[in-house]
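comment on this one:
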Amino acid sequence: MPEDSRKRASRRLAIARGHLESIVRMLDDPEVYCVDVLRQIKAVQGALSGAGEVVLRGHLEAHVATAHERGDATEIVEELMEALKYT
């Protein structure tokens, strides 16, 4: 993965970690408002989604775009399809 992509994904995951830690603290407080927890959960999901997009773009640029030239396009496509499989 390109270094720039690695750094941007790491930054987004650090943001997600901060939001997740905030949720854990919030749940320790019996006075916390449920909607506030839901908003934080949504923030974690957004940060994780953003990190995933950065990693995917880095993979596409570094590996998929050159797969045909290397002769491993089929393997690369199958690997990516498996990684993105919805369960």
